[in-house]
Sequence to fold (147 residues):
Amino acid sequence: MILSEKILNDMKTAMKSGDKQRLSTIRQLRAQIKNTQIEIGKELDDSEILNVLGIAAKRRKDAMEMYQKGGRDDLYAIEESELKIIQEYLPKQMSEYEVAELIQDVIKATGATGQGDLGKVMKGVMEKAKGLADGKLIQRLVREKLN
Fold:
């Protein structure tokens, strides 16, 4: 089953079960997918839908961070529950250990020696870990390894 069909079926299930939080989140996701389709002028394939979902997840994480800093635990909880729903559709994220191993492999392959090679290493890692690891985590680990 393609991802767009799975999202549609999950929306129908949420409607039937009366799960308002899940229904609202899935509707938001479908709207973002539809807007992207209109923007580029064609149906999205699964990889493009995953990209849209990744952006939605990143927005939720950023909002959670801001709400936590602002002491808004009520809004933080809402964003957290939406993020959990979105993550059901995303591929499993790499662990910090797996990302560190990947970075080490890219450093060896590129011959990077210091901070001047940061861009080269980041490019190589991001190509291999696209959608599977958080960019902030990758950047932090690359900086640590190159110091």
Observations:
- The helical segments are 3-17, 20-40, 46-69, 73-87, 96-110, 118-129, 135-146.
- DSSP finds seven helices and no strands in the chain.
- The CA atoms of residues 1 and 7 lie 10 Å apart.
- The chain has two domains: 3-87, 96-146.
